[in-house]
Amino acid sequence: MRFFLRAISYIFHPLLIPMAGTLAYFLVTPKYSPAELQVGNLLPIFILTIIIPIITYLILRNLGLVSTIFMPNPRERRYPLYIHIILLFMVIYKVIPNGYTIELHFYFLGLIVAAMSALLLLFLKLKISMHLMGMGSLFTFLVCLSIHFKINITIAVSLLTLATGVVATSRLYLHAHSKPELFIGFSIGILSQLLMVPYWL
């Protein structure tokens, strides 16, 4: 059981949330999306939000600034969050053509708001669940895409809801977070996306 729940923490790691939202957008949108546009978004986003953070983590670990990929110590989370926010801004300004993929533009803005909220709470000595924050962001984005494009993706939303419950269970079982930290993280993920909804829905 411990191995399974630990694997869940890796499979649904917060680093994958930006890429998951981007993939979900291109799978759901009825807009014509030529292959060049999709690759032109997916590849840079994959590099900026997954590859570079992994390399950065390895560097920080060698420097002794972080201990594990889950960063249990609140102080360890500051540098990765700084870098994460900068990379998300790069995605918005250099990758996503917001005139065409406005939904993705505001999805990433919501992710930035969530990350900055998590960083602010760290300065207040509160470590929230980044896993649940990411799941909350992705869940809200999927629901809003369904409403926006009038597409029934109930199965996808249901599976994501189930996955969110499993992720929360894994974080509790592994003693990574308390229930309030999970709840606050999930709430921030949802609210950060809802703040963006009036601009594109």
Please count the helical segments: 8
Number of strands: 0
Tally of individual domains: 1
- Label the structural class: mainly alpha
Name the assembly state: single chain
* SSE pattern: HHHHHHHH
Give the CA-CA distance, first to last residue: 41 Å
Portion of residues within helices: over 70%
Q: Could you give a short account of the major beta sheet?
A: none
Mean residue pLDDT? 90
Radius of gyration: 16 Å
Q: Identify the overall geometry.
A: globular
Strand percentage, roughly? under 5%
Uncertain segments of ≥5 residues (pLDDT<50)? none
Task: Describe the fold and architecture.
This protein is mostly helical and 201 residues long. It has one domain (2-199). It contains eight helices and no strands. It has helices at residues 2-11, 17-28, 35-62, 78-95, 102-123, 130-149, 154-173, 179-196. Helix 2 packs parallel to helix 6, helix 5 (102-123) packs antiparallel against helix 6 and helix 6 (130-149) packs parallel to helix 8 (179-196). It is globular and about 45 Å long. The N and C termini lie far apart (41 Å). The model has no long low-confidence stretch (mean pLDDT 90).
